[in-house]
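Homework help thread (please don't just give me the answer)

Our assignment gives two proteins as sequence + structure token strings and asks us to describe the second one. The first is just a warm-up. Here they are:
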Amino acid sequence: MFALRTSQLLRIGEEILRVALTHRSVETVREKVMSPLSVEQATYARDAFAKAIYERLFNWLVCRLNASLDSKVSRQHAIISVPPKIGPPRPFYVVKNGPP
């Protein structure tokens, strides 16, 4: 279920995603060897993949908010606080715009 929905959202093949998250690939000059990951290793790979996607989406969102504030609030001071969704408790991320 995870692989099907995720592959649809990322617009890649379900089998490509499944193999990427459950196998390790070692490439030499002459050949490419695929070996399966243990359940623990595959779980770690899945979690790392999800975290990387979340981080990229979050950075994209912050850039979009900054661009929006730059174009709409030229001389006013604006702050938007965004709480992190995953991981240990951390301070809020702050998106700022205003005079230097």
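The one we have to describe:
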Amino acid sequence: MLIQENVEMEKKPLGIPYFKHDPKAHSYLNLRQQPEMISALPELRDCPPLLEFVKALNADSPFETFGCDRGEMDFSNDDFPGFTRGYGSYLEIASLEKDR
């Protein structure tokens, strides 16, 4: 198993709340105020670790989540010959402390 992690921080990546006009995209949901919506997000179905992480961050933490996705992708790495597919996910979080 190859695990790669990447953390990026941006001071002003996206305004919250945000609204998407693409019917395939999701607009902002305040999951802290509507925790029942967490289980309805298609990106979290069949992925218990990501589901539980989103629940925890939106429950009692100094963060909230505002975007995620997961899926398969083409993969190539000389250290893993024969493996041609990879699986990845991302989760976007924001600090509730406005001064940070």
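TA reply:
I won't write it for you, but here's a hint about the kind of observation we're looking for: The beta strands are 63-74, 85-95.
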